[in-house]
Amino acid sequence: RGALGGMPELKDIKDQIEIKMTPEGLRIELLESPVSGFFDSGSARMNSAGEQVLMAIGRELAKVSNGVVFEGHTDSRPFSSAEGYTNWELSADRANTARRVMQRSGLEPRQVQGVRGCADTHLRAPDDPYNARNRRVTIIVQHLKTATP
Question: What angle is formed at CA 102 by the lines to CA 97 and CA 107, rounded to 5 degrees?
Fold first, then answer.
């Protein structure tokens, strides 16, 4: 949170980054808004704001040994192409894009514990399935596992 807060170029999107502790670990969510996001529309190509955020997170997570899981989520707006590319592929591709950016900035491959494409199966706003905040990438920093004697 501190590393991201010190980046003046991200001041306009700070409300789109949510960080909280959950039973699974530290959950970092990059939420789209109606006016801005982290990816080009309908694409897994990340824009510069998304890349800056994920590079900062990657540099910080490279300093710890926790496992990391990446999730991609979409809204419920149908997305498909003639080739059969749907929200499932889009969400998985966005999660993989996030993983690659973070690995380029220092996250170790051994830290990656999973990449999940969730499509619209876990909506943040279930009462508003087309809400932009349903489109997001989630980075889960898993709790360290303690050895049992």
Answer: 135
What is the overall mean pLDDT for the chain? 88
Contact 33, 134 (CB under 8 A): no
Mapping DSSP onto H, E and C, the string for 66-117 reads CCEEEEEECCCCCCECCCCCEHHHHHHHHHHHHHHHHHHCCCCHHHEEEEEE
Q: How far from chain centre, in Å, is Cα 118?
A: 12
Residue 28: both structure tokens together: 């970092």
Mean pLDDT for 50-63 is 89
Longest dimension (CA), the chain: 55
138 token code pair: 């989630």
Total residues belonging to the chain: 149
Q: Residue 72 corresponds to which amino acid?
A: G
